[in-house]
């Protein structure tokens, strides 16, 4: 008889917390003034198929512990994949040895006690999928087959992949905090190649969710990937021109990611940000806002506490175009003379708010310009804000898609680009930690490769 998933998760969580307590006790015994330990466990299945045949079936089981100890303001860290009692004690011992040789750092140490989470809400993040390898292969094959059936111009495939993962993260520290929560992530993706004469174009689609029942169907994912590949056939290049640029939702979140990178505490205290010291300043149009919502049920970036045990909570990062604060863990907050924002380990569900226009209305608003659906390259300078990325997408005339475009570059400066946001669409992409619709920038330089 199959075990109850909730019972299994509870048992695993208790086992990991017991190991955390063992590591903390060992650190105390070795004289550490403070200590913290995090243990994670991840189990997963991934299958990939190509051209109607199964290529790989991979089973993953990872477990590991990271421990950090403090002797006053001296810090030492060590990690291990062996969770046996002897290995844990040895790892703690190594961390203590390292701490004795490191320089003192007045900002080092555990989070302030009053910032730690006192309750751990159930955010409905764990939905294990008891899918067999055989069934997983069937779904991946169905997905690829749906893409190939889009039409005769779909001539090749990079394959379809189905993956399912469940894990638990447990964290504890010598201030008395102990907590653990489970999570699952499931995904299905497909990438195919369309051809016409000598031309070949590739495109893809994917679905991802905490709850496997909320994935798009295999047929839908495959069909979307096939249609996208066909739509890109007949692509043209453009000459150098300055025009409005509309970033589709799946790439628009990257623009917000660059903003987040610029306001991270590490970028600020290292003075390596194009938004250095920008808190309290207007950085976007006066209607623009970004909210953080860590406790959305089933959301991909939800978390009841951060990597330091600090309670996560709703906050506004940008409101009325004004940057209200930075993204901080305890160390970076102390370096800046501020308090942690509960973002050790990253942000938790950023919601980018627009003014309600759907995708078609965003195209109409742009009227004439470039719709970007794919970005390539790493041409972003986080210090100066200079932005230059390879791109592909569609030329838009009269608010309608006219023809596909490839091998172009879009360039500008991020600080200027954020001020030049015309609108954010209601076509929000939920497949990540940044929930964002399409973003229209007033003007960027577009050049042929």
Would you give an account of this structure?
The protein is an alpha+beta fold and 449 residues long. The chain has 2 domains: 227 residues, PmbA/TldD superfamily (PmbA/TldD fold), CATH 3.30.2290; 208 residues, no CATH class. It has 9 helices and 17 strands. It has a 6-stranded antiparallel β-sheet. β9 and β10 form a beta hairpin. α1 crosses α2. It is globular. The chain starts with a helix and ends with a strand.
Write the layout of secondary structure elements.
Blueprint: H1 5-29, E1 34-50, E2 53-71, E3 74-80, H2 85-99, H3 133-148, E4 154-173, E5 178-196, E6 199-209, H4 218-231, E7 241-247, H5 249-262, H6 265-269, E8 289-292, E9 315-319, E10 322-323, H7 330-336, E11 350-353, H8 359-366, E12 369-376, E13 386-397, E14 400-413, H9 414-419, E15 421-424, E16 434-435, E17 439-448
Number of self-contained structural domains: 2
Strands of the widest sheet, in order across it, are 3-2-1-4-5-6
Shape: globular
- Strand residue percentage: 35-45%
User: What does the radius of gyration come to?
Assistant: 24 Å
The level 1 CATH classification of the largest domain is Alpha Beta
Figure out the total of helices. Answer: 9
- Largest sheet geometry: 6 strands, antiparallel
CATH topology descriptor of the largest domain: PmbA/TldD fold
- List the helices and strands in order: HEEEHHEEEHEHHEEEHEHEEEHEEE
